[in-house]
Amino acid sequence: IEETFANHNIEFKNVTFGYGDENILQDLSFKLPEQKTYALVGSSGGGKSTIAKLISGFYKIKGGEILIGEKNIISYSHNALMKNIAFVFQNAKLFKTSIFENVKIGNPKASDDEVMAALKAAQCEPILARFKDGKDTLIGSKGVHLSGGEVQRIAIARAMLKNAPIIILDEASAATDPENEYEIQQAFSALMKGKTVIMIAHRLSSIKNVDEVLVVEKGSIIERGSDEMLRAKGGKYKALQDLFAKANTWRVYDK
User: Fold this and answer.
1) DSSP secondary structure string, the chain?
2) pLDDT per position as a tens digit, 83-141
């Protein structure tokens, strides 16, 4: 059983995965070289989240293999996968303990200064300033209400403290919390520096700075390239961007 990764390149080789008789992915193959940021885009149910979750090694695939560092992920210990991969999902869960302890779970050996630095980098200082107990504010206690965006920023601080080389990111909840959007984007950029990042992108405005966009449809990658290149190509990605731009220009007018 392997405990260390030679590198953080990710590769799917003829991966088939599904529930029961129905396959979500069929013979899917692609490579993601390390230390780059990848955005998975495409319509809902096309397989974006499935691809991201399979990288964690928690799901049994029907066929093919998934490699990290040129080795099949089943050859790594559970501990090695946990240590090297950090997740930030849209419905991040916080524990009923202090904000400080919620972040420290990311790396129980971290010093207090390191925890505070992660909170700062994830744009959590305004959250601490709202409560008289600051970092010692208990999540879930009376009078403590956090918005979706605030919960997500605390979860990002936790992932930053963990300092894993591979990050799987689902940025959906930024959409539900417009007043936190700028802070969340800043927190994401700080988290992603120098890492191998796979981001499930729901809001196409957030993927301008990624290295590569992968358009996922019906379990296949139908287009792949930079934002600029795919727009110029005029295929599915361009159509998705046009739809997104159109939806964003709708406004509610008072009569």
Assistant:
1) -B-S-S---EEEEEEEEEETTEEEEEEEEEEE-SS-EEEEE-STTSSHHHHHHHTTT-S--SEEEEEETTEEGGGB-HHHHHHHEEEE-TT----SSBHHHHHHTT-TT--HHHHHHHHHHTT-HHHHHHSTTGGGPBTTSTT----HHHHHHHHHHHHHHHT-SEEEEE-GGGGG-GGGHHHHHHHHHHHHTTSEEEEE-SSGGGGTT-SEEEEEETTEEEEEE-HHHHHHHTSHHHHHHHHHHHHHH--PPP-
2) 999 988 877 889 999 999 999 999 999 999 999 999 999 999 999 999 999 999 999 88
